[in-house]
Amino acid sequence: MADLRIRKFPDSVLRTKASRVAAVTHTVRQTLNEMAQTMYISQGVGLAAVQVGINKQLAVIDVGEGLIKMINPVIVKREGSEAVEEGCLSCPGASVKIKRAKQVVVSFLNENGDMMELRAHGLLARAVQHELDHLSGRLIIDYLGPLKKILAGKKIRRNRS
Ligand code: ZN
Predict the structure, then answer these.
(1) Is 131 a catalytic residue?
(2) Which band of pLDDT confidence, cut at 50, 70 and 90, is reported for residue 60?
(3) CA 2-137-44 angle, 5° bins
């Protein structure tokens, strides 16, 4: 069923700012299922639609606490800060220490079109912030200084296949 190809740096699709989803249709639900399947196959903890070339504000996350499917997610509250190393399925081989909020509250529509509000902390909060970055065209290597970013880019190009 799922045959979504994960796009890797420097694919320009990763720089797309995703559009809001106007209506939660069957196609949207199907896309979320396929994204989840692709995430599990790739052994990731999260996947944003732009990573598979779909220009929509959709993300799936599972940090081991169950699958969360998010439509039009928005972070409405951030608390604390913590710097932790992160990887990304679109940046194979790169690992970047990123300072992010320790806790976030994210609002989104679920696959039934209901407005949800999720309070996340730890790895889940980090995954939420990481996936929302993707939906605005931002990658982990953007947190690096100019020289380190060039080196990371070269490493990713070597690792991508
Ligand atoms: Zn990523």
Answers:
(1) yes
(2) very high
(3) 40
Q: Considering the chain, what percentage of its residues have pLDDT values greater than 70? A: 98
Q: Write down the pLDDT at residue 93.
A: 94
Q: Which domain holds residue 24?
A: 12-159
Q: How far is the CA of 71 from the centre of ligand 1 (A)?
A: 17
**Band of residue 138 on the pLDDT scale cut at 50, 70, 90:** very high
What CATH number should be reported for the domain holding residue 41?
3.90.45.10
Q: How confident is the model at residue 160 (pLDDT cuts 50, 70, 90)?
A: confident
Count of structural domains within the chain: 1
Ligand 1 centre from 114 Cα, in Å? 26
Between CA 154 and CA 4, with CA 47 as vertex, the angle to 5 degrees is 85
- Strand pairing report for 115-121 and 103-109: antiparallel
Task: Specify if 141 maps to a domain.
Answer: yes
Annotated catalytic residue within 34, 82, 86, 131: 131
Helices marked H in the chain — which ranges? 26-41, 122-135, 146-159
6 in a structural domain: no
Q: Which H or E element spans position 61?
A: strand 58-61
* Identity of the residue numbered 76: V
